[in-house]
Design brief:
With 205 residues, the chain is of the alpha+beta class. The protein is built from ten helices and five strands. α8 packs across α9.
């Protein structure tokens, strides 16, 4: 079982890459959201990916699907637990960030889910029925309600990941810390500014 790969990028196509690791070239499928994140990487650059490994009797050829973080991989594994959504369909469907998808699931926004490639209204309803209530780990607070000024999803996502994955805070606590800090600070340009505000106020104590 392959769960993580670090290697040199030697080929990049529309939905997959070829990664050289320990003199072996691994063909790895990437969801659009992951492919977008490595758009700036060039042939020869070193990259690291968490891997979902798929091999079944019906599909004996191994399939490797890559993600930037364990959180993305965890979301993917929940997503494919929905009836009629297999790994290959999920790879094509994930064309927006997991936080956007998670928020749509929690808010029962079927219309938003139908914007995912290959997801129709019937499947969108199945996604909501199966996964609603299980998305707290992945969803960001609503921008208009929790971050009325200076909201940046990229900054919030980065800070959330550090607080939860690296510093061990619970998702709900991290969300509260960020929300309170942004409301005090106003417009936030960078993750560093947001961290400064969180620690300056002693919210983490």
């Amino acid at each position: 079982m392959i769960g993580y790969i670090e290697g040199k990028l030697i080929k990049k196509e529309e939905d997959r890459i070829l990664l050289l690791a320990n003199q072996v070239g691994y063909e790895i499928l990437l969801p659009a959201m992951v492919m977008e994140s490595i758009r700036g990487e060039n042939i020869g650059d070193e990259i690291a990916l968490y891997i979902y490994f798929q091999q079944t009797e019906r599909q004996p050829k191994p399939v490797l699907i890559g993600f930037n973080t364990e959180e993305e991989k965890d979301f993917f594994q929940l997503f494919i637990s929905v009836e009629d959504i297999g790994p290959l369909k999920a790879v094509k469907a994930l064309n927006i960030s997991i936080s956007e998808i998670a928020n749509a699931i929690e808010s029962k926004d079927a219309a938003k889910l139908t914007s995912l490639k290959g997801i129709g209204s019937r499947t969108a309803k199945k996604i909501i029925a199966t996964l609603q209530g299980r998305m707290e780990k992945f969803a960001l607070p609503d921008a208009a309600e929790s971050f009325p000024v200076g909201y940046s999803e990229d900054v919030i996502k980065q800070v959330m990941e550090v607080l939860v994955s690296r510093l061990g805070h619970k998702t709900a606590d991290a969300r509260r810390m960020i929300s309170e800090a942004v409301k005090r600070r106003g417009p936030v340009i960078s993750a560093e500014e947001l961290f400064d505000e969180i620690y300056r106020s002693g919210v983490t104590e």
